[in-house]
Specification:
globular; alpha+beta; six-stranded antiparallel β-sheet; homotetramer; Thiol Ester Dehydrase, Chain A
Chain lengths: 156, 156, 156, 156
């Protein structure tokens, strides 16, 4: 079975090229800076666009499960913030974002030197935003998709 | 907010061009024909490929919820079968497929003359397959994404 | 492994005894009567209480999957309506309810003569309601839990 | 609307009283001790039973989101381990457990001095186990349910 749906060939989709206004980008960065959990796991912002946010974090031995892979909950932490800020990037100034719920499928062991999460808005409503988050692990210059999230965010 | 993540520009992704062997295609068609629920909702197969199955069904007034839109459970029925057969298309002959679980986000009212579900395999394992299903409604020649599913299938 | 978490001993929880006001009960019944899908699958209301709704439906050969079990999407249809009306039962008059999203785990084959879904509100908010739905199959006077749903509903 | 589904009256269910054999309890404790993430978030085991595991952790300012509440991903980390070990407690010796997928609804802000997660097995299969996880926050001697998880675990 040489079908591999995890290659970019099958999975990638065009990224939005719509840039954020300066004040909205600043708001996202300010909120991210206040998430102490992001600093504790070593996460940083790679890219901000309208409806799409990319975060990255290194492997950390102190955040692992029993086999030395990143704990599924930590993978979720990164994906949830990526999805939340993707949603916030489309909300009017003065809004805040909260996670209503999410579902995560763990596709492969979270093994690698770095992890990268991309959150994208699938449906932007006035109150609710539906987002998708994908997490890749980089191991020896190869990237594999390790988890995918489907999340609902609410504007407050 | 003119960002529209639901346009093909943002949502579409390359479809697999890998065709199915005749015996596997036949097995999928035979199993589909045995799903009485598919006939009851008027569903038919549009396209079979390795790891990807597309189904369609018409609007039916007798399958609606209180506003005359297709019931979320019927949308789910179509998406679940698309995902299940996408999974089965990658399994060795003699296998059968069962749904372990799924999560569905209802993005827009299921209003339209026709509905189209595409199920794709995200991760193909020996026992479990993780699939994604998207459902579009066609209304006056316009297609909109109305639901997205993330589902786990098991080989039996 | 004689542990059986599916027995009432482990799974049952006290049902609410709070009855609905007449006008709210009437609203729920009126909305249910408008769901053509409920009639098509043969569903009826067993019990209405504040935050809890019980529905039932018979086995129907025309709603099955490839093994003759009720299709997972039909099980979902019943559970979704039970959850939606449990949510509506706690909303002020003039409200309507829509499903935002749900996740369903299929625990056992949907085999039996009858099916029973209980939807309960876990968290009642002003805009969103989080609900749980459980579906049992009755086979030869024995009931087994066949599916469990976790769903988010929105007030419109 | 004085209905409160979060009180023990509505939510509690009988806990299993089936104790674990010593070797299985030891295996769960050993695996838990190897989850570095559990130590990093300050989690510990409160109770082990057949099909049910209870974990606790204190509030930690370094694990919060932008409002100073525990990050949804950290709540998930605790719930996921509780569910995983509940599943492992029913598996034969020599097994290991991995999370296939989970869905979490965040019901209330994760505010409090302590957090408590209970993972329970809803369906115990040979390969897959379906579990439910609930997380409570304790604030000023009051406990409120803040999150609920529905998770699928696999035996390896």
């Amino acid at each position: 079975m040489d079908f591999d749906p995890l290659t970019p060939r099958f999975y990638a989709r065009p990224m939005t090229d719509k840039s954020l206004s300066d004040d909205i980008a600043e708001r996202v960065r300010a909120s991210f800076a206040q998430q102490a959990a992001m600093q504790s796991i070593g996460a940083s912002i790679v890219r901000l666009a309208a409806g799409e946010v990319e975060l990255t974090m290194p492997y950390r031995a102190e955040l692992t499960q029993q086999h030395g892979f990143l704990h599924a909950g930590i993978v979720t932490t990164l994906a949830d913030s990526a999805c939340g800020y993707a949603a916030l990037s489309l909300m009017p100034l003065g809004s805040d974002v909260l996670s209503v719920e999410f579902k995560v499928n763990l596709l492969r062991p979270a093994a690698g030197q770095r992890f990268r999460a991309v959150g994208s808005v699938l449906k932007s409503g006035r109150t609710l935003m539906v987002t998708r988050g994908d997490v890749w692990a980089t191991q020896d210059d190869q990237e594999v998709l390790i988890a995918t999230m489907l999340a609902t965010m609410i504007r407050k």
